[in-house]
Amino acid sequence: MTPWPDAVTLEGHGVRLELLSQAHAGDLAEACQDGDLHRLWYTSVPGPAGVEAEIERRLSLRQAGSMLPFAVVATAPGPLQGRAVGMTTYMNIDAAAKRVEIGSTWYRAAVQRSSLNTACKFLLLQHAFEALDCIAVEFRTHFMNQQSRRAIERLGAKLDGVLRAHMRMADGSLRDTAVYSIIACEWPAVRANLAWQLAKPR
User: Fold this and answer.
1) How confident is the model over 163-201, as pLDDT tens digits?
2) pLDDT digits 0-9 by tens, 52-67
């Protein structure tokens, strides 16, 4: 049986989200070195040598029905046009309740603080609420990851709470996880805000 949700390509606002594959490994191995993202202690970005294994891990979770992984491909004119610049997913998928989490997301440093993250979240949220009829979309991040928390809050997500000592990190430290969500009735306002963010002059 095909896992829910079905694989899909989402495109617009200078980005394309396509099903992750080993064809993206070369671009992503370069991307994770841009800013030494794999050295950040509070994230789980693979190092260059671990990209192929991470792609395989995500694809195995796809087969198990708990994840739909995407490569983030830049489509705006520029030196990175047509190249994979990061990863994102629908994860912790609850097909019965129609809930997903948007997570395991990272982008190379060159596209951070651009409109790319807003565009990705717009496409993923729009598909979740308007095509998949989700009742809620969740976001989780390390309590200490202030950059990620601010980005989630700018989307219009609300803090549900903090799961203390939620999981052990690779370095042995315990992660407190900040849990946010957007529920279906909030989507029209969130959609209007994200559309304005994408349309306004930069």
Assistant:
1) 999 999 888 899 999 999 999 999 999 999 999 999 987
2) 999 999 999 999 999 9
* Tokens 């009829």, located at residue: 133
CA atoms in the 13 A half-sphere facing the CB of 42:
14
Instruction: Note the pTM of the prediction, 2 decimals.
Output: 0.93
Q: Please give the structure tokens belonging to residue 118.
A: 């807003």
What is the DSSP annotation of 120-172?
HHHHHHHIIIIIS--SEEEEEEETT-HHHHHHHHHHT-EEEEEEEEEEE-TTS
CATH superfamily for 10-199 is: Gcn5-related N-acetyltransferase (GNAT) (3.40.630.30)
Distance CA 191, CA 125 (A): 8
First to last CA, the chain: 45
